[in-house]
Amino acid sequence: MTARLMKPLPLLLVISMVAVAQEVTAQNAQCVRERTAMIETIRAYARSHVGDLGQQGLSERVLEAMGQTQRHLFTPERSCSIAYADRPIPIGLGQTISQPFIVALMTQLAEVTPDDVVLEVGTGSGYQAAILGHLARKVCTIEIIPQLAETAAKTLRDLAYDNVSVRLGDGYAGWPECGPFDAIVVTAALGQVPPPLIEQLKVGGRLVMPVGPAYTTQHLTVVEKTGPGNTTTRAVGLVRFVPFTRSQN
Length: 249
Ligand code: SAH
Hints:
This protein is of the alpha/beta class. It has helices at 11-48, 50-53, 60-68, 80-83, 100-110, 127-135, 146-158, 195-199, and strands spanning 89-92, 95-97, 117-121, 138-143, 164-168, 181-186, 201-211, 218-227, 230-239. The chain has a 7-stranded mixed beta sheet. Helix 1 (11-48) crosses helix 5 and helix 3 (60-68) packs across helix 6. The chain starts with 10 loop residues before the first helix and ends in a 10-residue tail after the last strand. Bound molecules: S-adenosyl-L-homocysteine. Residues 95-97, 121-122, 124-125, 127-128, 142-145, 148, 170-172, 187-188, 242, 244-246 line the site of S-adenosyl-L-homocysteine.
C-alpha cells in the first residue's frame, strides 16, 4: 500500500499518541537522570571503601555496565525513583535485589573479562545477571524459586540479553554443563562455600559470596582457585543477604 492511499489518522488520536510519546520521553529522561545519580553514589561509596576494593578501585567497565542496565525493568513496580535509590528492593517471595553499591562491589571482585564464562547462583530478578551479561561472554544463572526464575528469564529475554541463560534449580550443585567458570557470584548467604562450586571454578578463577549465618550479617568473601586442589580466601566486608536455601527445605 502506498502512503497516498492510507487514510489520515483522526486528529484526537494523533494528539493522544503525541502525548503518550512525550510522557514516555519524559519518563526515560527521568530514568537516565536517576541512573546517573546512582552511578555517582556508587563512585562515592567506592572512594570510602578503598580497602574492600583494593588498589584498582571500581573499574570504569563495571560502572559502564551498571549505567547501561535498566535496573527499574527488573523491579516489580518498574519505577525509576524506587529502582535507582540507594537501597535494596523487594522483588516478592521474601527476596530482594541488593543495594547498587553491593552489586557493583561483587561484580568488581569477580574481575570479569570479556571472554569469561560466569555462573551466578541466586538469579532473583535477573539484574545482577544482566550486569554480568554486559561484561562476560556467557552467563549462566540458577534460581531455586520457580516464579522468580520464570520472571527473570522473561525480563532477560525481552531485553535481548542473549548471552544469559536462566535455569531453575538448587545452585548448591552448580551447573557443570555450562562451566568450567572463570568467575562465580553467589547472591544468597550460606555458612560455607559449596564444594561443587569450587570444583567448577577454573584455576585462576574467583568466587564471590556472602559467607555466614542467615538473618544476620555475613562476610563478603572472595575465594581464588590457585591450583587444582588449592584456594585462597579473603573476607572483604560485612553484608546482609537473604538465605541460601536447599531444595529439600
Ligand atoms: N541476584 C539477584 C538477587 C538475589 S536474592 C538479583 O540481582 O535480583 C537471592 C536469590 O537467591 C533469591 O532469589 C533466592 O530465591 C535465591 N536462592 C536462594 N537459595 C538458592 C539456591 N540454593 N539455588 C539457587 N538460588 C537460590
